Amino acid sequence: MTGEQRWAIAEGYIPEGSHGPEPEMTSHETVCILNTNDEDAHVEITVYFTDREPVGPYEVTVPAERTKHVRFNNLEDPEPVPKGTPFASTIESDVPVVCQHTRLDSRQAENALLTTVPYGAE
């Protein structure tokens, strides 16, 4: 088994604007989840803010031996993740997974892409 069951992304921000064709160039925040197990990963994402209570869990299933790119922009239930607001997040899975965090900031024609591996904890 590869990965951890608990991950933390300390930095998050969905820019309010975008430049370029949608949906490819829409500014977004993403967690990429790799499940190398032979069983599905049931994942819960919780989002934390500087000035309000956390929101979640957002529930995601990553099929066995697959990867899933989850855009925070598309998380709707229990409520949409707000744009233009700093946040952090935790990812908890019932089986070990590997996570990677990516942001596309396309507010101007010269796009910025940030990617990092979150903190994995047992």
How are the elements arranged and paired?
Elements: E1 4-12, E2 28-35, E3 41-49, E4 55-62, E5 66-71, E6 87-105, E7 112-116, E8 119-121
Antiparallel strand pairs: 1-6, 1-8, 2-5, 2-6, 3-4, 3-6, 6-7
Count of β-strands? 8
**Amino- and carboxy-terminal Cα gap:** 13 Å
Q: What structural class do the secondary elements suggest?
A: mainly beta
CATH class (first level) name: Mainly Beta
What number of structural domains do the residues give? 1
Considering the protein shown, what is the CATH homologous superfamily?
A: TM1070-like
The largest β sheet comes out as: 8 strands, antiparallel
User: Which term fits the overall shape?
Assistant: elongated
Number of helices: 0
Summarize the amount of helix as a percent range. Answer: under 10%
What is the arithmetic mean of pLDDT? 83
The oligomerization state is: single chain
Low-pLDDT stretches = none
CA-based gyration radius: 14 Å
CATH architectural type: Sandwich
SSE pattern, N- to C-terminal: EEEEEEEE
CATH topology: Hypothetical Protein Tm1070, Chain: A
**What amount of the residues lies in strands?**
over 45%
Descriptive overview:
The protein is mainly beta and 122 residues long. The protein has one domain: Sandwich (Hypothetical Protein Tm1070, Chain: A), CATH 2.60.290. 0% of the residues lie in helices and 55% in strands. Strands 1, 2, 3, 4, 5, 6, 7 and 8 form an eight-stranded antiparallel β-sheet that branches.
